[in-house]
Amino acid sequence: MNVIEIFASIDGESSRQGLLTTFLRLHDCNIRCSYCDTTYSYGIDSVFTEMTVAEVADVIECLGNHRITITGGEPLLQEAAVVELIDELNRRKALKIQDSPSSQSDLTRINDVDK
Question: 8, 29, 59, 77: which could form a disulfide with 42 (CB 3.0–4.6 Å)?
Answer without folding.
Answer: 29
